[in-house]
Amino acid sequence: MMDATDADGRRSSTCENLTIRGLRCNLRRWGRAEARPILFLHGTQDSSVTFQFVIDHFQRDWCVFAPDWRGHGHSEWSPSGYWFHDFVADLSALVDLLFPDRAVPIVGHSLGGNVAGVFAGLRPGRLSHLVSLDGFGPLVDRVPVDVTALLRSYLDRTGRARRHAPYADTAQMAHRLARANSRLTRGQALFLAQHSSSVDEAGKRCWLFDPTHQASLPALHTMAEWARIWSEIRVPVCWISSSDTRPNAVVNFPQALEERSKMIPRLLHVRIPGTGHNLHHDAPAKVAAAIEDFLGDA
Hints:
The protein is about 35% helix and about 20% strand. The protein is an alpha/beta fold. The strands form two sheets. It has an eight-stranded mixed sheet with strand order 1-2-4-3-5-6-9-10. Strands 7-8 form a two-stranded antiparallel sheet.
């Protein structure tokens, strides 16, 4: 079992600042330093605290490491934009810093799962297992990439400042989260709102992520490129899928999902019905059990 809980009965975490490729990176940790290490990677416009509910349901003793990506959470924003390959390079640098002499399991959600999947193909010896929560490559309408349109859009957006709309308090932010995901309990929504926002100079609350980051800019332009990298993965892989209702989510296209699953040599696919894209919020106990069942004694 993992150690200390806070006043609300949640497993407590600590944070520290690292420098990753020139940017300040916030790293969150749960559990005893002597326990088995595992690395969690969050998705777009989210932060490391998103995994709190899964960590609360772990039955085994883990030392959980979870960074805030560049432009997210308490990590530094990137003035040069957010290209997918930058996230992969950040992960590579983080793994080398935290785990120089061992391969560890990596769990990623959405963007985090996709980054981890590419990293697993490029650096197959640097992890022991890969778990991807609803991160099965790009949305079906995002490939092939129109590179001319992509670069034109990038130039058009460069230098244009965006600002978050302010909220009066965490209760208002929690209401916004609950509207987006009706499966969230009030306690979950309030927790996420509190830990995913900060107070601005006017005393209003704003989300922590960089508002210029709507989605990572693609470095891979075709599914053939994804397949080439995935084919190099040498560790066991578990895809855990939700009942994602986004119209272009891969889980809504069974043939595409099947084709992609065949691109990875050692893949187990676990489905958790009745969940949305944030399945780690909707069914944290089931997600935690699926992860621990897959990892075994890793």
